[in-house]
Amino acid sequence: MDETTGSFRKEVGARAEPERLPVAVSGLTKRYGSVTAVDHVSFTVEAGTTVALLGGNGAGKTTTIAMLLGLVMPTAGEVRVFGADMSRNRYDVAQRMNFQSPYVDLPARLTVKQNLTVYAGLYGIANAAERIACVADDLQIATLLDRPTGKLSAGQKTRVGLAKALLNAPDLLLLDEPTASLDPDTADWIRHKLKDYARSRRATLLLASHNMAEVERLADRVILLQAGRIIEDETPKALIASYGRETLEDVFLDVVRGRTRDTEEGAAPEVAKAS
Amino acid sequence: MTEHHAIKDVEPVLLPPAGLHASLRRMAALVRRYTYLLRSSGVRLVELIYWPFLQMLTWGFLQKYLAGTQNPYAQAAGVLIGSVLLWDILFRSKIGFSTTFIEEMWSRNLGNLLTSPLRPYELVAALSLWSIIRLGVSMVPVAIAAFFIFGFNLLDLGLALAAFFCVLVLTSWSLGLISAGVILRYGLGAEELAWSLAFLLLPFCCVYYPVSVLPHWLQPVALALPPTHVFEGMRSILLHNTFDAMDLWWALGLNAIYLAVGYVTFSWFLGSARVNGTLLQLGE
Description:
Chain A has about 280 residues and is an alpha/beta fold.
């Protein structure tokens, strides 16, 4: 606590409660009627690591992230973020988190600067103007600040969304398809920025993605989901090795097509009958 | 994209997230967001005044016509215009609350708001505050126009006007909370409710006629609605120069119940939307 200003000043690498895991998910289940979107999922995420949730459409990635954010209530199980039960005490940690998703937008009629100013107010950022200028400079959106958000290109919108997500310098950043619909150059640039952010602040990143190159580049660990269940939880390298493949994309295709990790190298993988 | 390094790294100074000051700060941030939105479109600003102005003109000319007849009620100065202006306070405040909320869904911004430190009661308080600001922008010019065009001075209602205003605005918030809750739960398909819910009250809260006109069995229903007491009170002042303050206390008491019901309904639908996962699909 800064005694002169009465405010909490964040310091790079510092954590108020280092003993509490950024994410601890236990027995997490979400059912919509007869459909089970997430089925008894348990995992933890260590501070300063980047974990990717990988899976096909309907695997339960977005629902898991939504439960981590408190947007969706679990049917069973528990989500703890920095020790806070997200079903009951979400607001204890809301200021330490942020998220970006292509499924939400910032108001189109407001300028970029206006949007960022509003969110600086919501996240309780005392030095809003300076922080916005800094994030805008870092994400190369300074020239866009006075433009209506709705008039930006997809790549520009993604950078603005990321600026909103980084305004409060979150200890935990949740990203749903962070580079969806971006050209390879912009997507690569965004990944570079995310990696920089995670490394420089020892921040924790949890991302859901279909993009295998992205996951290989960013993630320390991959959690593979299928039909709402965790079927693999490894480092990208270990996962690729255990499937005897060369890329994570090959592993992903094996998994979604029901091939097992015991397939002999070089042989045509056998498709599981159940699929 | 080119490689680039920030000129100067500025750390965010995060203020304490809990407490009254934090709540007020978040509410102010939302009101600022709504102000930006209103300022961004001249058409929206004009539209705020356009409809109540047209209403006032239509009913004002009707009033002028009826004043030339032998009907003593019609001859009473400003009853119709007063009814229109007071009804518009209720209707515009309700619309201000609901459309501002729907705006968040249209712009697919609700997910951002609901994952921020903003509490639901702060969202509701900001919407309520904004509905009053919008009402001021909308009704003050129209009330002034009514004075200059028809010689009707809303301030003739005296102190009672402040009480009428409170009753009507509180009722509008109750209705706004219910419609916002239903839209949260059922999505933009239920948007029509935001526009039509206030009209459900129109026949029963006796805007243009006294309660005695209603069938006996319907009168208790009318009296259970806070706005009925406002319109009865307004007629009493303008026609008989009398005013029963107890009537307004009764209306304020009813409002407290309706507001509580509105907030519980909103919270229940918000909880239900979290359970059903509809917050994920909003605006898509």
